[in-house]
Amino acid sequence: MPSERRWVFDPDSGGVRIPETVRRRTEQRLRRYAEKHYSGRYTWLDIRFRGQFCYIDGYTKPEPLSPNWPPPDWPETREEYLERLRNTPTHLCRLRYFGDEERWGFAFYTYSNERYELSVFPSGEFLGTPEEAFEVAAGVYLN
User: In whole angstroms, what is the distance from residue 20 CA to residue 86 CA?
Assistant: First the structure.
């Protein structure tokens, strides 16, 4: 008996290109949410779109340095070091658009593997809102 082929939804592949109107609304939603819930924990957010993806990075102020840092043999000055830290993004997450503004896929950036890993939302679902994804990632990296 031949096996029957079935289509199965995979939250870690596919998606559709994000229309410009959805891009604008999504960016506005994320910025409003971040300002309301994470104001003061980041200096600015970089929200960018490519194909079916929305990438969210946060920039933060470096922690205060001890007076002896950096050591004399360090390859950059104290000011260069602080400037580099200020300009290094904290990758938060990547959203995957499937055609519904309220149900996006979510990949959390893992620094241990230096890649985006498929994640579930707090609800236990693979799809959720951009704000829910931001909350998870910001709760880890911007606290």
Answer: 30
